[in-house]
Amino acid sequence: MMEGRTAPTVAASALRVFDLSLGQMLWSRRSVFLAILLGAPVLMAVAIRVLGARLGPIEVNGRAVNGAAVFGLMIWLLYIRFIVPVLGVFYGTSLIADEIDDKTITYLFTRPIRRSAVLLGKYLAYLASTVLLVLPSVMLVFFLVVPTGEGSLGAAFPSLLADFGMLTAGLIAYGAVFAFVGARLKRPLVAGLVFAFGWEPAALLLPGYLKRLTVAYYLQALVAHERPQDSPIGMLLQVFREVPPVGTSLISLALIVGLALWAASRAVEGREYVLEQ
Amino acid sequence: MTTRTRYFVFGSLLVLGVGVAAGLVAYSLGYSTIARSSAGGPPELQYVPRDAAIVAYADVQDVMGSDLRRRLKAALPSSENGQEEFQARTGINVETDIDRVVAVLARSSGSLEPHDGMVVASGRFDNTRIESLMREHGAQVEEYRNKRVLVSADAMHRRIEPDGRTPPAADRANRTFALAFLEPGIIAVGSSTLVRHAVDLDAGGDNITTNDQVMALVRALDNGNNAWALGHFEALRPEARLPDDIVRQLPAIDLFSVSAHIDGGVYGTLRAETRDDEAASNLRDVVRGLLALGRLQAGSNPEVQAMMQSLELGGSGRTVALSFSVPAELFDLMGDYARRRHSPGAPAR
Questions:
Q1: CB-based contact B43:B82 (threshold 8 Å)
Q2: Quick check: pTM over 0.80?
Q3: For chain B, which residues make up each domain, given as ranges?
Q4: Which residue of A22, A135, A154 is in closest CB contact with B30?
Q5: Three-state SS for B259?
Q6: Mutate to test the interface with B, among A31, A139, A218 (most CBs of B within 10 A)
Q7: ipTM of the predicted assembly exceeds 0.85
Q8: C-alpha B13: how far from chain center
Q9: Sign of the torsion formed by the C-alpha atoms of B123, B124, B128 and B129
Q10: Which of B12, B31, B184 lies closest to A132 in CB terms?
Q11: Of A143, A248, B81, B86, which sits with the fewest C-beta atoms within 10 Å of its C-beta?
């Protein structure tokens, strides 16, 4: 009887894995970390709004700062430089690694589906859960912060839509890169953290072509807000700043995603996972 | 998918949907209201020097969307070349990216002649694209008072003086072209001297909104008009290149202004503030004579006659005002005339 049934396609299998994994990702222990990570900017925005109403707008060097500028600063410092890479590292590296740690990968790999479909489904679940959490968080911060300091919601709204696109692109790219790291390496979290917070900031600082081997180089070209000069490193980055055109950045990010997912699929398909007893 | 996961997905999409809808409403309805500064006039006036020779404003979206603009575009399609070149050099599409502009001509120090020009534009700008395009065209990036300023020597170096000679080297060095990102959605483009001054004014200082005489006029001009300009008449004389005899005969005019509502046609008022009542009276006599001459010359064309009939002289005290109405059909005639000049074989309408 079973001989008449054909194996499901990669897309159908990936969607089934996505369906199962989305709930697992959202209601896991990691969700507490996610809630803190994305709730903190919203709490900061509430504080800025309350303090702004009581003490007047934020001032820098004696000048009132427009709410849109504060929002731009939060996008740079909190979301682009921290939240998006962190989410990529923690969720991307865990797509396969969690199943190995929980010793449940055997159950997935013994199903009559391609191993790459498991990876793809889990990657889509990561993308859905992070995008559905990050974008509402940014939206709340926007509506809380931008009206302070005589900022205009209407004038700043197009930049919010650009931010949505840019953050989604960042989650897609970082997720793909760290999915590969998770599928290929034994200690993916450490390697991911070194890449996101060691290699990327250092390569961006160095003059020459090395910065092209980072995700941040292409992602930061999509940011509509003024780059903050919050530290000596920020000022150095400003000096060595080389911004690729938007089209080049988008094509490069698409290539990074394609290559990383292809390499991750190959790694998952070819690797023998030995579960430690 | 479990029920609580489904609730989460719907909840998240609901927050996004409501937020985007609210943002769109704020963008489409509130923007023009919020954009008006409390001092009167557009908020971009805060970047205009107090002693600017000529200031002009246009609600670009209103003008670009007008019936008159559509007619002109159909009649004179070749007039888009300047726009395309500007877009190629800066990445800014004048029709879709810019909401409103304030243009300035400022006097060079020690001269009554307007020398430096700048446009402050507000709208939707892709800063990264603008920067990379300008850098491709040889612009240099510099930091000035924490703002990014793109300076290009190219545009001004190609400038030729009215008498046909090229400007001297020292003068050229001072006349570089610059673009600064003043605020999200606001850029300044023009002479680097003025652009840097706009950045200075962003940090505080005497801008044109502290000039009570000019601001009173701005509030009057801004009421119901989508384009206006005002300035010191002395600044216009060298550009107009009028013969000395006529210049000597002209009454002493201090400020001049023109305001217009551009829609199906152009409805507006030319206004001049003279130095005293006697000068105003003399100017009215001159204008009255010119109007009589114009009506005699109007000929049999009904559109030109209608325009001449619409001219109405008014004003009191030191103010002389001339209101006018230019029907859209007159622009059709002008377009027809321009087409015939460019292609003599084309049939006349």
A1: no
A2: no
A3: 34-208, 224-349
A4: A154
A5: strand
A6: A139
A7: no
A8: 42
A9: negative
A10: B12
A11: B81
